[in-house]
Structure formats: C-alpha cells, structure tokens
Amino acid sequence: MPSFDSHTDHLPVTAVTAREITGNIYLSRAEAAAYLGLAPKTLAQHRHDGPPYSRFFGAVRYKLADLENWARQQRVVR
User: Fold this and answer.
1) Using a CB cutoff of 8 Å and minimum separation of 24, what contacts does 60-63 make?
2) Phi and psi (nearest 5°) for 34?
3) 15-71, pLDDT tens digit by residue?
4) Residue 26 burial by CB count (10 A; 0-12/13-18/19+): exposed, middle or buried?
5) Which of 14, 63, 71, 78 lies 20 to 30 A from 21 at CA?
6) Confidence band of 2 (pLDDT split at 50, 70, 90)
7) Does the predicted TM-score (pTM) go above 0.85?
8) How far is CA 44 from CA 23, 24, 34, 73, in A?
9) Which residues does the UniProt record annotate as the domain Helix-turn-helix (predicted)?
C-alpha cells in the first residue's frame, strides 16, 4: 500500500490512488463499467438484471466483490 503523508504530498489524489490508500472497495458506475469492459450506460440500463449495487445519497456504487461474483455467474459454458 502506498504511503501517504498529507503534510508532504500536495499532488491531487485520483480515485484510484485514494482507493489504494484507503482500501475502498466501492466503485463508481464508470469504474465498474471499465472493470467489466462495458459502457457505463449499459450498467445503468441493466440496473434490474445486472450486478448488485448500493446507493449512497443518490450515488450508485458497486462493490468489487459483487462485480466479481456477478461476472462469474454470467459465464457460459458450452
């Protein structure tokens, strides 16, 4: 995990860096879509039959473990 010293590091922190620092496991719709290789609009359109999500003050967030489990369940074996 990268070190973070708020007194010496004055560069803007990206969402990815913040997640690495804090261990946050929730992804925005855009991040979840990128993780799954989909467009964010596709996730929005499949809200009822897609991966589970949470709402925090109106913001949709996807738990990384839920995305992994959902993707595993979508596997088609022939």
Assistant:
1) 60/28, 60/29, 61/26, 61/27, 61/28, 62/26, 62/27, 62/28, 62/29, 62/31, 62/32, 63/25, 63/26, 63/27
2) -60, -40
3) 566 566 656 678 889 888 888 888 999 999 999 999 999 999 999 999 888 888 999
4) middle
5) 71
6) very low
7) no
8) 25, 22, 13, 19
9) 26-75
Q: What is the CATH number of domain 25-73?
A: 1.10.1660.10
Q: Which two tokens stand for residue 62?
A: 């996807």
Whats the size of the chain, residue-wise? 78
Answer whether 11's CB lies under 8 Å from 5's CB: no
Phi, psi of 39 (to 5 degrees): -85, 145
